[in-house]
Amino acid sequence: MQFFDKASIDKIRGQALLAEQSGEMPKEWLNILYKKNYFKLFIPKQDNGLMMPLPQALRLFDEAGYIDGNLGWAITIGSGGGFFYAYMQPEIASKVFKGKKSLIAGSGAPTGTAKKVKGGYKVTGSWRYCSGAPFATSFTANVIINDKTKEIRAFIFEPKQVKIQKDWNAFGMKATESHSIVVKDAFVPEAMTFDLSITDLFYNHINYQYPFLQFAELSFASLTLGLCRHFMEEANNMLKENKKTWSLAEGRMEFVKNIIKEKENNFTKASTDFYKLADASWKEMEKNGKLSAKTQNQVSITSKKTSRIVLDCVDTVIQYMGMNAMMENSTINRVWRDTHTCCQHILLVPFAKV
Length: 354
Description:
Elements: H1 6-14, H2 16-22, H3 27-36, H4 54-67, H5 69-80, H6 90-97, E1 104-107, E2 112-117, E3 120-130, E4 138-146, E5 151-157, E6 163-165, E7 179-189, E8 193-194, H7 206-209, H8 212-241, H9 243-246, H10 252-288, H11 293-318, H12 331-343
Parallel strand pairs: 1-4
Antiparallel strand pairs: 2-3, 3-7, 4-5, 5-8, 6-7
Helix pairs in contact: 4-5, 4-8, 5-8, 8-10, 8-11, 8-12, 10-11, 11-12
């Protein structure tokens, strides 16, 4: 299934360099995503969502990442906030997600504190890496509500309560606008908070029953696959463009061609293994209503392993692409940097051998 038509792909790729240089998500891209409803992949149809099955969404993240890393990141992060729908009281969930341009930005880091007051809380804090902050319609963030027990609760903020600090200066994914947000003494009603540890959800659907950690790991890993496909495509394009000059150096052309082929084979196997496991885990969910601890572990390991294979592919190949590949305005360099930034996400970093 193709998720983007050729006209949209051409428009997005045609603006990719300008998007990176400006550090902003182009309005034309956002309009495409609003029209296709891709920020609402995991929202029920009753609130104008698509409720797309996770395996299908993974293919979308992959394709979007292949078109442009910033686009893929925006969809992956933006739609992922829809997972919280089932944890919010129904009337609040509808209020937050029903709008055509509804989008949550926020953070899972508990870097805010709350004081209990009549009817709710007074919240102060700051949170980093809130992708899509400038065009978000709501913000969510984890907050410590009890200093002694370190109890954490998620809070929903309205844009007027939030100050955006434009401090995102990573060397890749520059147009994702993943800035910090600051909240000071904001009053948040009790109803505008939720607990991600509850098991009795307000809305039951297999997407929400899938373990959130593995849900997120699969999502980011599928994005890295799309980035790698784009990188390899650019490497092959450069191989063709430089055939005449690279053939002048004895053995260079054949050597680079073999390196690319070897890494393409590694990537293809990793992609096949990834989707085989992702699809099997979904079938397990459909059959049993839950994932076994073994499957959860396999999903986590495979997601991290996939990102390491992707990194090995792009890092090995770029060494042989010549000096032009080191120029920041070259497509292959931009995709390489976006890939590294995506693979740096904590959910994809293995802290043990995989």
